[in-house]
Amino acid sequence: MPTLETTVDGLKLPNPFVIGSGPPGTNGKVIGRAFDDGWGAVICKTVSLDASKVVNVQPRYARLRSRHTMDEKGQGEIYGWENIELISDRSFDTWLDEFKALKDSHPEGVLICSAMEEYDKTAWQDMIGRCQDAGVDSFELNMSCPHGMPERRMGAAVGENPDLLEEICGWVMEVAKVPVWAKMTPNVTHIEDPARASLRAGCQGVSAINTIRSCVGVDLDTLRPEPAVEGYTTPGGYSGPAVKPIALRMCMEISKLIESEFPGRSLSGLGGVETSHDAAEFILMGSSTVQVCTGVMKMGYGCVQQMCDELLAFMEKHGFETIDDFRGKSLPYFTSHSDLVKKQADARAAKKAAADKKKMVRGDAEWDGDDFVEQSDALARG
């Protein structure tokens, strides 16, 4: 009988589905709701020591809808979602109180703190220490938010610089007593570079990918880019099903890096996950856990129940007993284009040789009544 229970970096999860950092983990009340609905773990919205610097705007989302497929409301299905939302605007002390309360009310729930700070060793280590004391089970370091406060060397401003990233991860690992994942930005040429820097600094794992820096579109009546705030906007982070192919490719690249240089480290995959089929693909690419954020904003917290049921059905179909039985199982089938050309040429040559051998009779014992006419034709010319 297959099971979804899994242990990742010492964290015991009832299933591999994790609430990704963002609005679905924006306060203790909704985090508790996620635990109640059966999520394997929850990552809170990103916290920092000084929330007073966080000022959000309205509107802060823009969505792309299909022209062909409709949702239950008769609107085009959402396949792309841009946000210009910042990290949590709630005070750090409030978060500490809620972390403690959550560990009291849901002691078995795996609570992961998403953390971000300025380029300041003391600030980073103070934040990590105080969150640990409040009872969080793990950390995800937000080194990848594509918008908001880059001038403070926060988010993607760090994640795009492997040297800076390795230094800050090193500060965290000096004081961390629980597992640490670093969240990767996709807005780089080679995602292996920041992943390598994080793992070299000692992080137990990485998460990939965060949102893709984007401009979702322009209002053709007003000629203003969206989402427009007083007629202006700023590039934001793109998520939803449209980013999944990019996320899968980057997870494959990170998994191959882990396999070759950092065996035993973990990957938490995300980017466009809305169904069990999406989740299975990320696990086949080497992910130990799978995060959902935008999907929860579209479908609600209860979507995890169907995803669990369908993932179990997938495992039963293929004879997999555990998540590890099929984690990374698709990785060996990636190769270079030149190797694809060679493999295809070899396969065609082998197929032709087999066909020729079957057709051409070389001795009387090889005649076959079922293929007598074909064998005769193969021996004839004209």
From TrEMBL:
SUPFAM superfamilies: FMN-linked oxidoreductases. GO terms for cellular component: cytoplasm. It catalyses: 5,6-dihydrothymine + NAD(+) = thymine + NADH + H(+); 5,6-dihydrouracil + NAD(+) = uracil + NADH + H(+). Keywords: Oxidoreductase. It is an enzyme of class 1 (oxidoreductase). Residues 4-315 form the Dihydroorotate dehydrogenase catalytic domain. One of its GO terms (molecular function) is uracil binding. InterPro entries: Aldolase_TIM, Dihydroorotate_DH_cat. GO terms for biological process: thymine catabolic process; uracil catabolic process. It comes from the Bacteria. It holds the Pfam family DHO_dh. Its EC number is 1.3.1.1. Heterotetramer of 2 PreA and 2 PreT subunits. Involved in pyrimidine base degradation. Catalyzes physiologically the reduction of uracil to 5,6-dihydrouracil (DHU) by using NADH as a specific cosubstrate. It also catalyzes the reverse reaction and the reduction of thymine to 5,6-dihydrothymine (DHT). NCBIfam families: PRK08318.1. This is dihydrouracil dehydrogenase (NAD(+)). It comes from Pseudobythopirellula maris. The lineage of its organism: Bacteria, Pseudomonadati, Planctomycetota, Planctomycetia, Pirellulales.
